[in-house]
UniProtKB/TrEMBL annotation:
CDD domains: HMG-box_SSRP1-like, PH1_SSRP1-like, PH2_SSRP1-like
GO MF annotation: an example: histone binding
Native organism: Hypocryptadius cinnamomeus
Plastid recorded as keyword: no
Every HMG box domain range: 545-613
Origin: domain of life: Eukaryota
UniProt keyword list: Chromosome, DNA damage, DNA repair, DNA replication, DNA-binding, Nucleus, Transcription, Transcription regulation
Name of protein: FACT complex subunit SSRP1
Statement: the UniProt record of this protein carries the keyword Ribosomal protein: no
Main location: nucleus
Localization annotation: Nucleus, Nucleolus; Nucleus; Chromosome
Alphabetized Gene3D superfamilies for the sequence: 2.30.29.150, High mobility group box domain, Pleckstrin-homology domain (PH domain)/Phosphotyrosine-binding domain (PTB), Structure-specific recognition protein (SSRP1)
Length: 705
């Protein structure tokens, strides 16, 4: 006969839920490993008291009872496996595997029997149903009635929350059957009552999940989180694992408690309790027990008086009470030397810790993945940028986890770690290619970036050409809009006495007409710089005195090199924080010394500002005088030019007739109006640096005639 029997796809009934896993029977005992949580139940062969084979909904099941009252149920066996199991129990455990069928009569009255941690409702000798008392969360009594309330099961679609038993009265004196029933239930039920004093209390600990600050009271059998809004009572039996993880900044520590079943807040379930500690926080702890009790219970793992870092004290106490090992990061080191990798999971950024037997991600949402439940991993190129990559994990249950935005410098370290742990890599055959592709990342990334720039440049050129075409079109429209004005000017000249002269010089006019639009277009283009007038606004004068530094900045400039030498390799942000701490801790006398220096600097600044303001006023007065003088000279030059144009026009048109003199006067009147309008236009154009307008050229042409 074989020394071991192994069964796959066996279901263990735990608190109303069926958890699948692997069952192994050996000479030493029975071992069941939960495939979901990885929790291992180990039953020693010497502890087994009874074995029962029965028909259940999932085929056939095995119920094992231990000598200390614990009950274990495993379902999913085939009927043909009974003989093999029966022979194994006889040979190795010296037990008869009894066959018992459940009663299916449908009666609702019978006898209640308490056996260990199990309540059995029987009709005759056959059980109808069984209730593990560890599932009971509350027990209340009424008149001839007992009500049992159960813990909610998150894994089941439908949960049984309450059962009521009617207990008929009896004639026995001094014994209340209802109270006796309730006491039997409460003695084995998982009812948490905060009775007695706590072993120790940790005040105002920062908790990331559930978020807030909580007082943690340590009781012998459970953990009590007391916050401003919510209270949680966590039995130590629900703690699966403990993790102590260093933060990437090397100044903080995560303490993670894995829970099954999770704690509840409304419809939210917290499978992990995450505490955040600063490495600088110290505490002196005194346990609320005498030294003999401490020695007897904890066997040297704890002492009555302890002191040290806060995170060390919390983890040490939890390890002793929960009796589980604390998992810490292994020998993995990332590109920056940290034991974790910065990445994003879903919508939040966090830290991924490669452990010796799995991965854990903190903190929102926390994820723990064991190596034995991983089907394969995959390294994928980042979806948004080639400067990062994605790390994908798919479990045997088909669940996929994608950790994105990992710096590509971490690829080599992570790949070597995964390869050393012999995990199945989906693209293992491309290891060299992957490294090459990531080496090509730099080249291809830069090439792609250059190509993108080239494409953008081409698009910019196209936009500029379109803009030039549209501006040319608009320029033609402005030219055409200017032409009617010019034609009006020509028509106005036809009413002058020199209309024949203007008509006879048609070629010259046509030449001038061809030149006018170009000059007009120049004037329009020259008006664009007017939009840049805000640049001429008064800005900060580089010659102005600089503002004085504060006392803290003076001290920081003097002490920066010393801080760098005391803390080699310190970053700029850490240096600022360290300087702030040193300044805060500095004595009042030393601060007064720097305050005096700052006051002296302030006086010097005020003195320099007075001198600067006097000099700037003098410069402004000189500038105004020079501007006025320049304008006066420009007006004188314009007046002389107007007089010369008038005399040349009068000499060119000589006539003795009075009517002609009247027309001559009218022409002078018209030309003076034109010259005045031309001068106003000329002044506007001179402000913008433009050429002289066409009327002046007409005057010169008439003078030459």
């Amino acid at each position: 006969m074989a020394d071991t029997l192994e069964f796959n796809e066996i279901y263990q009934e735990v608190k109303g839920s069926m958890n699948d896993g692997r069952l192994r029977l050996s000479r030493q005992g029975v071992i069941f490993k939960n495939s979901k949580t990885g929790k291992v139940d180990n039953i020693q062969a010497s502890e087994l008291a009874e074995g029962v084979w029965r028909r259940v909904a999932l085929g056939h099941g095995l119920k094992l009872l231990t000598k200390n009252g614990h009950v274990y149920k495993y379902d999913g066996f085939r009927e043909s496996e009974f003989d093999k199991l029966s022979d194994f129990f006889k040979a190795h455990y010296c037990l008869e595997l009894a066959e018992k069928d459940l009663c299916v009569k449908g009666w609702n009255w019978g006898t209640v029997r308490f056996g260990g941690q199990l309540l059995s409702f029987d009709i005759g000798e056959q059980p109808v149903f069984e209730i593990p008392l560890s599932n009971v969360s509350q027990c209340t009594t009424g008149k001839n009635e007992v009500t049992l309330e159960f813990h909610q099961n998150d894994d089941a679609e439908v949960s049984l929350m309450e059962v009521r038993f009617y207990v008929p009265p009896t004639q026995e004196d001094g014994v209340d059957p209802v109270e006796a029933f309730a006491q039997n239930v409460l003695s084995k039920a998982d009812v948490i009552q905060a009775t007695g004093d706590a072993i120790c209390i940790f005040r105002e600990l920062q908790c990331l999940t559930p978020r807030g600050r909580y007082d943690i009271r340590i009781y012998p059998t459970f953990l009590h989180l007391h916050g401003k809004t919510f209270d949680y009572k966590i039995p130590y039996t629900t703690v699966l694992r403990l993790f102590l993880l260093p933060h990437k900044d090397q100044r903080q520590m995560f303490f993670v408690i894995s829970l099954d079943p999770p704690i509840k807040q409304g419809q939210t379930r917290y499978h992990f309790l995450i505490l955040l500690f600063s490495k600088d926080e110290d505490i002196s702890l005194t346990l609320n027990m005498n030294e003999e009790e401490v020695e007897k219970r904890f066997e040297g793992r704890l002492t009555k008086n302890m002191s040290g870092s806060l995170y060390e004290m919390v983890s040490r106490v939890m390890k002793a009470l929960v009796n589980r090992k604390i998992t810490v990061p292994g020998n993995f080191q990332g590109h920056s030397g940290a034991q974790c990798i910065t990445c994003s999971y879903k919508a939040s950024s966090g830290l991924l810790y490669p452990l010796e037997r799995g991965f854990i991600y903190v903190h929102k949402p926390p994820v723990h993945i064991r190596f034995d439940e991983i089907s394969f991993v995959n390294f994928a190129r980042g979806t948004t940028t080639t400067r990062s990559f994605d790390f994908e994990i798919e479990t045997k249950q088909g669940t996929q986890y994608t950790f994105s935005s990992i710096e590509r410098e971490e690829y080599g370290k992570l790949f070597d770690f995964v390869n050393a742990k012999k995990l199945n890599i989906k693209n293992r055959g491309l290891k060299e290619g992957m490294k090459q592709s990531y080496d090509e990342y730099a080249d291809s990334d830069e090439d792609q970036h250059d190509a993108y720039l080239e494409r953008m440049k081409e698009e910019g050129k196209i936009r500029e050409e379109n803009a030039n075409d549209s501006s040319d079109g608009s320029g033609e429209e402005t030219d055409s809009s200017f032409n009617p004005g010019e034609e009006d000017d020509d028509v106005a000249e036809e009413f002058d006495s020199n209309a024949s002269a203007s008509s006879s010089s048609g070629d010259g006019d046509s030449d001038r007409d061809d030149k006018k639009p170009a000059k007009k277009a120049k004037i329009v283009k020259d008006r664009k710089p007017r939009k840049k007038q805000p640049e001429s606004k008064k800005g900060k004068d580089p010659n102005a005195p600089k503002r004085p530094m504060s006392a803290y900045m003076l001290w920081l400039n003097a002490s920066r090199e010393k801080i760098k030498s005391d803390h080699p390799g310190i970053s700029i942000t850490d240096l600022s924080k360290k300087a702030g701490e040193l300044w805060k801790a500095m004595s009042k006398e030393k601060k007064e010394e720097w305050d005096r220096k700052a006051e002296d600097a302030r006086r010097d600044y005020e003195k320099a500002m007075k001198e600067y303001s006097v000099g700037s006023k003098a410069d402004s007065h000189r500038g105004e005088r020079s501007k006025k003088k320049k304008k006066k000279q420009e007006k004188q030059v314009k007046g002389k030019g107007d007089k010369k144009g008038a005399t040349s026009k009068s000499s060119s048109s000589k006539s003795p007739a009075k009517g002609v003199s009247d027309s001559f006067k009218s022409k002078e009147f018209v030309s003076s109006d034109e010259s005045s309008s031309a001068e106003s236009k000329k002044e506007d154009s001179e402000d913008e640096g433009a050429a002289s307008p066409p009327p002046s050229s007409e005057d010169s042409a008439s003078g030459s005639d």
